[in-house]
Design goal:
The protein has about 200 residues and is of the alpha+beta class. The chain is built from three helices and ten strands, in the order E-E-E-E-E-E-E-E-E-H-E-H-H. Helix 2 packs antiparallel against helix 3 (about 175-185).
Length: about 200
Amino acid sequence: MLLLIVSFGGCGGDTSSTSEETPTVNDSSTEEISSTTDNSTEETSGPVYGKALLGNLANATVKIYEISDNGSLILKWTETTSEGNTLDEIGKFNIHANELNPDRFYLYRVEGGCDWDADDDGVMDANCTENKGVIRAVAKGKTIQEVGESFKVTVASEIIYEKVAKYLKYSFNATTFENELSKAISPVLTDVNGDGKVGIKD
């Protein structure tokens, strides 16, 4: 399995998207829906929280889409990232891990909000910096469930998303898409945990 989410140093500031490869959004499904669907994993515990990081983004809008068989996006949930008095508290959002279909791909789209560590020094800024861009992450439901609270949407996940976005927009095929994700990961991610491979934990 693969995951497209890691943190970079030096990632603060404007993240205006450079990709014009945006898949089709299914307009008939863009309203927030119940957290339980026929294809979902039964919820067995409380919410699982990931993070949106440039620095830590407070009050950003997170839209979570399921990718359908034809590559169109079905909006499942809309969340807002947390505020707080420390960086540890800022940027959290419910990733709906317990409700994801393990065999489907999901796109997390984070927009707006305010960055409380724009210089990425690990110290909360005196004032937040408005985020004018978008960062995204795409991964299979099973992978997101395995990673759990380590799930992060970052500049690195956005770079990988931009490498594979065209495979969502044109003639989507889940197997091809998964293969292209694997190819896109290696140039961007490294073996952070030292297990000899670039994978979920990285």
